[in-house]
Specification:
The protein is an all-alpha fold and 245 residues long. It contains 9 helices and no strands. The protein has one domain. Helix content is 67%, strand content 0%. The chain is elongated.
Length: 245
């Protein structure tokens, strides 16, 4: 893996959102279209198989935009140049969620069966136990998602800029996120707050916040991983896939 250094203590969440908005503001509507189409394509195929490629495509556009080049809708599909490493990174994110969901489902079924009497009727006195399990598992699930999201937050930009494998990018992203933990947590909380405001705006407002969320993460990434040289936006070299087959 390349010797890629990162900075610490440089993420100011509000500043990242402000700079992210300034970055996309002149091209907001095309960025909105790129982001929405990317998210729709990511959701078409089950198990988020295309999610990583679409995320890479969105960040590819943001890299070009940061160089002063206007966004091109077709650049979204440049994300398929990074399909394999992006898929590996996505699986690192998805697999723990699937495992926890299955464990949660089985535990919920266990509680529900334990509520039944010999006649197969539910015991009303156990209803609070069921609610307690649901709330507890919901909290644990939220914590797990937040932790994985925090560690994977820079993975896709690293794949695009440096052509890293999914595992290499995740490891480096996790180290950088851990070294900037307070800033990353603040960034995620701001994302959640912005998304909540969008949901309150007739739900559809949440979709209009997506370009800004990507832009804010991109700004945070660039603060942590400064561009000392021209970004490498070419497809990953063949050596990036060694050891994955």
């Amino acid at each position: 893996m390349q010797n890629i250094e990162f900075k610490t203590g440089v993420i100011r969440p509000i500043e990242c959102f402000r700079e992210g908005w300034e970055l996309i503001k002149p091209y907001y509507w095309i960025m909105f279209a790129i982001t929405i189409v990317g998210m729709l394509i990511a959701g078409v195929v089950p198990f988020a198989i295309l999610m990583g490629a679409m995320y890479c495509g969105i960040y590819f556009v943001l890299f070009r935009l940061s160089e002063g080049k206007p966004p091109d809708f077709g650049d979204l599909f440049k994300g398929f140049n990074y399909f394999l490493p992006a898929l590996i990174a996505t699986l690192i994110f998805i697999i723990p969620i699937v495992v926890f969901t299955l464990v949660s489902w089985f535990s919920m079924m266990g509680v529900m069966f334990s509520m039944m009497d010999k006649g197969g009727r539910p015991d009303p006195s156990m209803i609070f136990t069921l609610y307690g399990v649901m709330i507890g598992e919901g909290l644990v699930f939220g914590i797990i998602i937040s932790c994985i999201h925090a560690f994977i937050i820079f993975t896709y930009p690293l794949i695009v800029e440096h052509g890293l494998t999914g595992i290499e990018a995740f490891k480096l992203s996790a180290r950088a996120a851990w070294s900037n933990l307070s800033g990353v947590i603040g960034l995620i909380l701001c994302q959640f707050g912005l998304y909540l405001i969008g949901m309150l705006a007739c739900v559809v407002g949440a979709y209009f916040t997506l370009p800004l969320m990507f832009a804010a993460v991109f700004v945070a990434y660039r603060k942590v991983f400064p561009s000392f040289n021209a970004p490498n936006l070419a497809p990953p070299p063949p050596t990036a896939y060694e050891g994955l087959s």
